[in-house]
Fold these 3 entries.
Entry 1:
Amino acid sequence: MVGIGGLLAEVAERLQRKAHVRLLTTGWERRIGIVEVDSQMRWQLTFSQGRAFCGEWTDEQSADVVLQGHERELCMLLEGDELLYTSAKQHVRIAGALRDQLKLDAILRLTSK
């Protein structure tokens, strides 16, 4: 199984391959924080200038949207499978502005495999 860091890199790569999704992220400068409750690992997915970047989330950085859940559900959310995404979304806690949550939802659904 690929870890969350690897899956975030895959999401960023899938985003780059889908031009229609890149248009959706143009002008959307947001930082998505991801907290894995099993190990307390913290990751971030940053959208800037129509691109996505991933890395570890440090305490100095704030997040616009925070996803919190167990590693298994977070992996299911990011894998790119529509059915797994729908199932995992019920178990992952999402906090942040509703508009940003909806945009992230659309991005993750549109970048599915």
Entry 2:
Amino acid sequence: MHKDEKQQDNVTALLKAQVEQNKMMQEAVEKLTEQKEQENKKKGFISRLFNR
């Protein structure tokens, strides 16, 4: 009986950790996507002229 409860607690803890990891991965992907969008954003004439 105790063994089953312990296994259930372990599975629950593992699932919680997995959810947290998924959240962190999603945030990282969103940040990378935002960075890519900023890089791909059209630059104005003057900023293109002076940034080269």
Entry 3:
Amino acid sequence: MNLTQAAGVVAIPPEVFQASVEEFGFVGVLPSVVTDGGALLLGLVLLGFLIRFRSPWAQLKTA
């Protein structure tokens, strides 16, 4: 789910971001940067845990 939300940057036409920057400056794209960037970061963290531990959010079990 997070990786699909992060893909929103490519799903939205670049003209929308350009118009937002022209109208409001960087603040116009800040919500998209925060949500999509956060989703990408969380997706990568989850993927890293899945690869390392073979289960999301798993912890190493000590004997």
